Amino acid sequence: MSEYLLEVQNLCKKFPIKGGIFGREVGAVNAVNDVSFKIKKGETLGLVGESGCGKTTLGRSILRLIEPTSGAVIFNGQNIVDFDANQMREMRRKMQIIFQDPYASLNPRMTVQGILSEPMDIHKLCMDKEVRKKRLLDLLDQVQLPADALNKYPHEFSGGQRQRICIARALAVEPEFIVCDEPVSALDVSVQAQVVNLLMDLQKDLGITFLFIAHDLKVVEYISKRVAVMYLGNMVEIAESSELYGGARHPYTKALFSAIPKPDPTLKKDRILLEGDIPSPMNPPSGCHFHPRCWNATDECRKDYPGVKAESSTHEYRCFNPIQLSEK
Amino acid sequence: MAEKILDVKDLVVEFNTDRGGVTAVNGVNLEVFKGKTLGLVGESGSGKSVTALSIMRLIPTPPGNIAAGEIRFRDKNLLDIPLDNMRSIRGNKIAMIFQEPMTSLNPVFTVGNQIEEVLELHQKELSNAQRKEKAIEMLRLVGIPSPEQRIEEYPHQLSGGMRQRVMIAMSLACEPDLLIADEPTTALDVTIQAQILELMKKLQDELGMGILLITHDLGVVAETCDDVAVMYCGQIVETADVKTLFAHPQHPYTKGLIESIPSFDSTSGKVKDRLPTIEGMVPSLFNLPEGCNFQGRCQNVSEKCRGSAGEPKLETIATEHQVRCFHPLS
Ligand SMILES: Nc1ncnc2c1ncn2[C@@H]1O[C@H](COP(=O)(O)OP(=O)(O)OP(=O)(O)O)[C@@H](O)[C@H]1O
Ligand SMILES: Nc1ncnc2c1ncn2[C@@H]1O[C@H](COP(=O)(O)OP(=O)(O)OP(=O)(O)O)[C@@H](O)[C@H]1O
Ligand code: SF4
Ligand code: SF4
Ligand SMILES: [Mg+2]
Ligand SMILES: [Mg+2]
Known about the structure:
The complex is a heterodimer.
Chain A: E1 4-19, E2 24-40, E3 44-48, H1 55-62, E4 70-75, E5 78-79, H2 85-92, E6 95-98, H3 112-122, H4 129-142, H5 159-171, E7 177-181, H6 189-206, E8 209-213, H7 217-223, E9 226-231, E10 234-240, H8 241-247, H9 251-259, H10 299-303, E11 309-312, E12 315-317
Parallel strand pairs in A: 3-8, 3-9, 6-7, 7-8
Antiparallel strand pairs in A: 1-2, 1-4, 4-5, 9-10, 10-12, 11-12
Chain B: E1 4-17, E2 20-33, E3 37-42, H1 48-55, E4 64-73, E5 76-77, H2 83-89, E6 94-97, H3 101-104, H4 111-122, H5 128-141, H6 147-150, H7 160-172, E7 178-182, H8 190-207, E8 210-214, H9 218-224, E9 227-232, E10 235-241, H10 242-247, H11 252-259, E11 315-318, E12 321-323
Parallel strand pairs in B: 3-8, 3-9, 6-7, 7-8
Antiparallel strand pairs in B: 1-2, 1-4, 4-5, 9-10, 10-12, 11-12
The structure holds adenosine-5'-triphosphate (2 copies), iron/sulfur cluster (2 copies) and magnesium ion (2 copies).
């Protein structure tokens, strides 16, 4: 079997745009466009990019919570895009998702015991009463919540604790892969670090593979060995996180990383200020979607869409005029 | 020393709720100087927005109530001014950018109407044509492309970043002396945030306004503020100039906040170190402990912090550096 747990190949997701009085299809948003990448077992791939660039759509398409328009998702050697509903149900156990807003994703009328039991009931896990009880307590322990949490309701917990409940719910079915969609974005600064550490510990102990989506690049860089950057539905660069910060080849990656405010008042600002707004994904610019904001853009960029170039076995980007090493 | 334009003294703001009364702001002191930026940071619910709204006299009453304190704007105590007169100060001498731009723009008027309305209120001498021209100029200044067209559009036709820039254009249209910006960039993407912070800085240099910048992003503070005040449970726990605060934080909460930011120069490839964290969570305002509000999460906590010596007071430990802690870190 391959060393990769997940291989995404040329994945596309189009959303139809309806218009007119008959609600006919008048166009489409290419929310995810020809995206390919692989994740090794036990690895974390970070996924960054600005609002609306397609991160959530990509994460949900991989789990088939949204049906991809085309492309393949190879999980453990099998293309799950071809799976029927029964096969998919079995697969769902192995692939879980954690959302940004821990409050909205928990049923307010269920106790923590009910919330954690639900996925186990669906998948008929730990059906013996004693075994179930022990499993529930183990789960709470794994996410560092006290045992008396079982009989409480979501509103009795803080934001950080609720996110721990969501993590425990995802862990309940012993998944191999978890999509974390902005899991710490809604949390307070001082609590973010607690949840980030918890996720890293779980990966070490249980060998879970993560796709970690966030727009806070500092958090992503910290938690992920490799990072992929998206812009308007396209994956424009993917590399080791240490390499991306200093050695980005795509102009957008470089601008994105330089825009992060650094928490050190003695540093001199060395910032690339991008002109203009992020264009609408409904009507993206021709050629390379980044060209209206790019300082390296040439005629070629306005006409054609750049293909994938490999810098090394771990570093790929899509750009006609990449940043030269001397430009750094 | 620059001229002091805002001086908040011992501000106390209370709210009556179904669960009883809470003191959301409990004895806050702040100073903003001409041409300078004061950063106000702290956890969610620590009272940052309530402090800002009090300065604008926009606290909903009831349930809210400014129970004590002074808000001196230049030589006036804003709390003594009749609310009617406050209206001419608001948006004229003091402007505010709110946390959520969509809720503070009127959806049924065009962007142009809204900027022109501000100008009509505050620069009565302008003719209609001049007002329109000025509104276009303001939009151009905040970096909105083709402002002649945009001025005819409604807020929902603009992206979040553009709406926030329209808010900034509106608040700067009357060249205020003081700008209060409540998380002006939190909802925006980093490349847009960088544009807007740069713009605010440029306008500050041109107009010499003082800025009170509320944020929870210490990166933004480090890059844009001259001074910083850190809030916790309705109180200022530390205040200093920005370099001192980052280099020598004295309050354990400030130090914890700075340390829990994932650092950027981590060398990848090997297993990364754990992030330092502040354990536990913020106590409820309904159920604050005796003594120091941070005791439940503090590693330096002693008997004294648990109430035997009362609450720690905000003490001056060096020039321009104050801290509310019985055992400052030194
Ligand atoms: N169900 C849907 N129907 C139509 N368009 C959609 C749908 N879901 C997403 N989109 C569009 O697809 C694009 C990508 O959205 P997505 O939510 O994946 O972005 P994102 O990168 O997760 O953004 P954010 O950082 O704001 O969460 C957006 O333009 C969005 O408007
Ligand atoms: N309208 C209101 N009614 C009742 N209580 C309120 C009201 N507005 C604010 N409060 C109380 O005041 C406290 C401080 O709120 P505030 O909005 O100032 O926090 P903040 O520091 O701005 O937080 P955030 O970072 O989440 O914006 C809250 O915990 C809340 O209990
Ligand atoms: S392909 Fe051209 S426009 Fe696109 S990022 Fe590269 S240089 Fe810029
Ligand atoms: S007063 Fe005591 S508990 Fe409070 S911050 Fe200082 S050392 Fe910690
Ligand atoms: Mg998303
Ligand atoms: Mg607020």
